[in-house]
Design brief:
Helix content: 25-40%
CATH topology: TIM Barrel
CATH class: Alpha Beta
Strand content: 15-25%
Oligomer: single chain
Strand order of the largest sheet: 1-2-3-4-5-6-7-10
Shape: globular
Number of domains: 1
Largest sheet: 8 strands, parallel, barrel
Radius of gyration: 18 Å
Order of helices and strands: EHEHEHEHHEHEHEEHHEHEH
CATH architecture: Alpha-Beta Barrel
Number of helices: 11
Length: 324
């Protein structure tokens, strides 16, 4: 399970002592925001590793319920930041499209998620992508298999969705796929790399650019080793490394357990907290420090992607403080 599938769950975050995660109201927006940006070509441009600017051009994600908190967070984001909009159970297609429109209207780059196994029909898939592109000038999408063990419709995995041709038919230029530096519970390491390679090849063949967005991790060493292996296998697609936003320690551990993320005592100690002291909060300072020091051109085009487990405001405040 990816962290993106969990963002709507109620989790302790405020002060790390049991407050609910900061989310927007469930109230639907009556009028869809007017989209002011115009279509343009989108690519993930490699500029080489610039250690002093490791948080430049970071991306993050929101849910359909986060529209109001996103509006409040916009001043803290650079224009044209990539903002993913997740595809969660219990949300309406209309609500997702409204969130996508709000991202676009805020002069950001919306990246709608598509959960293959949650798509119930071919018509639903095509209608969603067509609506996102026509209403909000979407040029990038992110596709994953999704959490359900059995497909609710015709698509059992992300490659099947890519092969439908729905993305290039609607002008999508960048297609995001998942990466799992710590492995996947249902696949071997070889199968994981083979799946990434197959999807990148298919996306390239269809005239689009692949982008790999990884599961979050507390273990910088494991992620860096995975990156080296990825490049050794000839997979050169840009990568965005999943970073857990600052949150309560119990929150981080709960997400880690559900997502299959390693959280041994030695790993979390390096990250910055102890399994014997669970009442505080933890941010990704040491994780990002390690990436800043050790990422090189050998790792390819790498940027950061934040999962705001403790809320958008807290994550963006952490970014601002770290840059200082």
């Amino acid at each position: 399970m990816r962290a993106a599938d969990l963002q709507s769950q109620t989790v302790p975050s405020g002060g790390g002592t049991g407050d609910t995660r900061q989310t927007a109201s469930d109230t639907n927006v009556n009028n869809e925001p007017e989209v002011m940006n115009t279509p343009q070509q989108e690519t993930e441009v490699s500029t080489g590793m610039q250690q002093d600017n490791i948080l430049n051009d970071f991306s993050l994600e929101i849910t359909a319920k986060d529209v109001e908190s996103f509006r409040q967070a916009v001043p803290a984001l650079a224009q044209k930041s990539s903002v993913s909009v997740t595809f969660l159970p219990g949300e309406t297609m209309e609500a997702r499209l409204q969130a996508i429109a709000q991202v676009a209207a805020s002069n950001m780059l919306p990246m709608p998620h598509i959960s293959a196994r949650r798509i119930q029909s071919e018509e639903e898939l095509h209608q969603y992508v067509q609506s996102a592109t026509s209403q909000s000038h979407v040029k990038r999408c992110f596709v994953i298999a999704g959490d359900p063990p059995v497909a609710e419709g015709p698509y059992s995995d992300s490659l099947t969705v890519i092969k439908t041709g729905v993305f290039e038919k609607n002008g999508i230029e960048v297609v995001g796929i998942g990466g799992h530096p710590e492995g996947h519970p249902n696949m071997s390491i070889e199968e994981c790399f083979a799946a990434v390679d197959a999807k990148c090849t298919e996306i390239n063949t269809r005239g689009m650019q692949p982008l790999i967005v990884t599961q979050f991790s507390f273990d910088a060493d494991a992620v860096l080793s995975w990156l080296i292996e990825l490049r050794k296998r000839g997979i050169s697609a840009p990568v965005r490394l999943g970073i857990p936003g600052p949150a309560g320690i119990k929150t981080l551990l709960r997400f880690a357990k559900i997502c299959g993320v390693q959280a041994s005592s030695s790993v979390v100690k390096k990250y910055g907290f102890s399994l014997t002291q669970l009442m505080g909060t933890a941010g990704p300072d040491k994780l990002v420090d390690t990436y800043k020091k050790q990422l090189t051109d050998q790792h390819g085009d790498v940027k950061m992607h934040f999962y705001p487990f403790g809320g958008l405001e807290r994550t963006l405040q952490w970014v601002d403080d770290y840059r200082k």
